[in-house]
Amino acid sequence: MLKSVAGRQVPFTPQQFPIRLSRRVGLRTMPSIGAKKAVACPSGEQFVNGGFETGNFTGWTLSDPMDWECTSAYQGQGPSEGKYHARSVSLEEVTATLEQDFAIPIPVECFKDTSIFSVDTQWYQLYPPPPSLSIWQVEILYTDDTSTVLNLFADQKNVYVTHDLKALLESGKTVKGIRVTVKRATGEYAGYYIDRCICSI
Ligand SMILES: [Ca+2]
Fold first, then answer.
1. 52 domain residue, yes or no
2. I want to staple 179 with a disulfide (CB 3.0 to 4.6 A). Which of 30, 99, 102, 167 is the partner?
3. What's the gap in Å between 59 CA and the centre of ligand 1?
4. pTM of this prediction?
5. C-alpha distances in angstroms, 81 versus 51, 73, 102, 147?
6. 26 lies in the same domain as 94
7. 3-state secondary structure of 161
8. Within 10 A of 179 (CB to CB), how many other CB atoms are there?
9. 181 located within any domain
10. How far is the CA of 49 from the centre of ligand 1 (A)?
């Protein structure tokens, strides 16, 4: 018996032994290296004052306090929901931003079918069409300092449009927050509004 066992060990050559050893070590270590880390997902609404119903910009970071106004209505343009919305009052050639970073960054995989990630925006423009040098966009910001940009000039004018940001999320990334940007071209006369920002996980 021993002889036959010894006989079967003949194929173990000096070249093969290290390979078998490394495979064995690999199998032992793989479960810990390859184990998927549990993703920490926040729950509930992630925006603070996403509808601007405090009547001010609590929770938001403004490029300059002079660039934005929290208002109930302006020239007949009412909010999308509630009593207040945000309006850009930036001057020409100024890049005005309105940004909110979430308290806890959100891995994209945390967004479920039932999650909502959206913003309502509205714009009108009287002069000049089209705004080739203007910027009117919302960005989904990621923790790797990249972003997904949504150009809002394609929207129908004078009505609030709900934008589904969840559909634009880039897999594998982690959402840091959102940024709205307005830049008016010289001589432009337009209105830019945002309201009802929702990020419900
Ligand atoms: Ca509102």
1. no
2. 99
3. 14
4. 0.79
5. 7, 11, 21, 27
6. no
7. strand
8. 19
9. yes
10. 9
